Structure formats: structure tokens, C-alpha cells
Automatic annotation (TrEMBL):
<keyword id="KW-0460">Magnesium</keyword>
<keyword id="KW-0378">Hydrolase</keyword>
<dbReference type="GO" id="GO:0003677">
    <property type="term" value="F:DNA binding"/>
</dbReference>
<feature type="binding site">
    <location>
        <position position="149"/>
    </location>
    <ligand>
        <name>Mg(2+)</name>
    </ligand>
</feature>
<dbReference type="InterPro" id="IPR005135">
    <property type="entry name" value="Endo/exonuclease/phosphatase"/>
</dbReference>
<feature type="site" description="Transition state stabilizer">
    <location>
        <position position="149"/>
    </location>
</feature>
<dbReference type="GO" id="GO:0008311">
    <property type="term" value="F:double-stranded DNA 3'-5' DNA exonuclease activity"/>
</dbReference>
<dbReference type="Pfam" id="PF03372">
    <property type="entry name" value="Exo_endo_phos"/>
</dbReference>
<feature type="active site" description="Proton donor/acceptor">
    <location>
        <position position="147"/>
    </location>
</feature>
<feature type="active site">
    <location>
        <position position="106"/>
    </location>
</feature>
<feature type="domain" description="Endonuclease/exonuclease/phosphatase">
    <location>
        <begin position="4"/>
        <end position="248"/>
    </location>
</feature>
<keyword id="KW-0479">Metal-binding</keyword>
<feature type="binding site">
    <location>
        <position position="247"/>
    </location>
    <ligand>
        <name>Mg(2+)</name>
    </ligand>
</feature>
<comment type="similarity">
    <text>Belongs to the DNA repair enzymes AP/ExoA family.</text>
</comment>
<dbReference type="GO" id="GO:0006281">
    <property type="term" value="P:DNA repair"/>
</dbReference>
<dbReference type="InterPro" id="IPR020847">
    <property type="entry name" value="AP_endonuclease_F1_BS"/>
</dbReference>
<dbReference type="InterPro" id="IPR037493">
    <property type="entry name" value="ExoIII-like"/>
</dbReference>
């Protein structure tokens, strides 16, 4: 089974890019983030014509998450992250698919910081850690896939001092990600590629794609029950260089 995560950065505008990648990569399950489309604007028919069933939660201007299944419809088990019923932002969807539980998540950016946006990011992270612990304790085969908006270490970002104040690399963000991993989650890409940067995001500004000034923001985390089945993992970085591309590249893994 091949499972991927892709921050599409506007699913309507970049639908041609998405369809082209789906045809080339042929993932079995795809987690999308940053749909930037209301619920009834999601391109369900076009994706169905490409062979993919979909479950999604849209939002008008920002956010939005979806999961696409190639062989069967994903069965939604959660369309919000538990822990705060007042939080209406579309940042989390969780499905059962062919014996695996998969979540597509879009963690808050947190900028500018300090302030309420970083506070919201860290509170959201705590809810994720709590929910992930519940899934882990149940012994379920789980993948937590998505744009975490966290650069875990200095190895995951190009050499720079210009982003020292960015919420993506703040100690609090990194510490929360480390605590999540410490509860038994396996970072699939980093486990199989310990020495390479494996960037997944290159900002549109300042020729960061052309200069390979990237960051690793998109992660695939496996529960204890699923980690032994990890076979391959990688980043389809060439997708980032295509015309009209998202500023993220798809990240993927295969399971035995």
C-alpha cells in the first residue's frame, strides 16, 4: 500500500497538478491539506473520474483537509480533532481504509509569534498529542499524515538565520513534535533517510526553490503497530518545480 501526503495549496486552482501527479505516482491513499475551498467546491467528480473516492472537510479561504482512496471509499471516523468543540477550523480528518486508520492534518502555522496564533498552534498540538496517545494505547495501525508546520531539527532546513523568529522552528514547536515522537511514533521519511535533508516545502519568495532553500514540514508518522510494515519512503520533489505548482511537494511511504 502506498500512502502519500500533499499540501496542495488550493485544490481547485491546482487540480491539474494534482491529477497529473496522481496519474504518475498512483498512490493508494492520499492525504491533502490546505484545500482553500468550501465544502461544495471540492472537485469530487474530477477526482472520481481519475479513480479516487474522497472524504473532505472544506473551508472558504484557508485550511481544509481531505483523504482520497483509490480502491474504496475512505470511511470517516473523525472530522475534527478531539479536545475543543469550539474550534471550527478545518484542520483534521481521520478515516479507516483497508485495515489502517489514517489522519490528514494541517497544524496551525503560528506566525506571527509570540501571540495568539502561536498559542493556538501549541494548544492544537497538545490536543493532537493527547488524541495520538489514545490511538497508540489502543494498539491500532495508524498513520498521522500532513503538514505539521514544524521543522523538527536544524537538519530539516537550509542553512539560514533569517527565520530565527519563525514559529516553524521555535523551541516550543520542536519540543511538542519531539514529545509526539517519544510516545512511540515513527517518522517514516527520517527513519529511512537519516542523512539527507528531504525537504518538502520551498517558499515562493526569494527563489527558494531554485536555490534549494527548503524545509521539511510534511511528515508521515506511524504507530507502533504499523511501523514494522514500513518498506519505503520519499519525497516527489520534482512536482514542486512544475508550472503552477504548490509550494509543497508530496511525501509518501509504502507498507508491506
Amino acid at each position: 500500500m502506498k500512502i502519500a501526503s500533499y499540501n496542495i495549496n488550493n485544490v481547485v486552482r491546482r487540480l491539474p497538478n494534482l491529477l497529473s501527479w496522481l496519474e504518475a505516482a498512483k498512490p493508494d491513499l492520499v492525504c491533502l491539506q490546505e484545500l482553500k475551498a468550501v465544502q461544495d467546491r471540492f472537485p469530487e467528480d474530477e477526482l472520481a473520474a481519475a479513480g479516487y473516492h474522497a472524504a473532505w472537510r472544506g473551508e472558504r479561504q484557508w485550511n481544509g483537509v481531505a483523504i482520497l482512496g483509490r480502491d474504496a471509499p475512505p470511511i470517516v471516523t473523525n472530522d475534527t480533532l478531539p479536545g475543543d468543540p469550539k474550534d471550527k477550523q478545518s484542520r483534521y480528518i481521520e478515516v479507516a481504509y483497508q485495515g489502517v486508520l489514517v489522519a490528514s492534518l494541517y497544524l496551525p502555522n503560528g506566525n506571527p509569534q509570540p501571540g495568539p496564533k502561536l498559542d493556538y498552534k501549541l494548544a492544537w498540538f497538545e490536543r493532537l498529542i493527547d488524541h495520538a496517545a489514545t490511538l497508540q494505547a489502543a494498539g491500532l495501525p495508524v498513520i498521522l499524515a500532513g503538514d505539521y508546520n514544524v521543522v523538527p531539527t536544524d537538519h530539516d532546513i537550509y542553512a539560514t538565520k533569517s527565520l530565527i523568529g519563525n514559529a516553524l522552528i521555535q523551541p516550543e514547536s520542536r519540543e511538542a513534535f519531539a514529545r509526539l515522537l517519544a510516545d512511540g511514533w515513527t517518522d517514516a521519511v527520517r527513519t529511512l533517510h537519516p542523512d539527507r535533508p528531504m525537504y518538502t516545502f520551498w517558499d515562493y519568495q526569494r527563489r527558494r526553490w531554485e536555490n534549494d532553500h527548503g524545509m521539511r514540514l510534511d511528515h508521515l508518522l506511524l504507530s507502533r503497530a504499523l511501523a514494522p510494515r514500513l518498506k519505503e519512503a520519499g519525497v516527489d520533489r520534482s512536482v514542486r518545480g512544475e508550472d503552477g505548482a504548490s509550494d509543497h511537494a508530496p511525501v509518501w511511504l509504502t507498507l508491506r
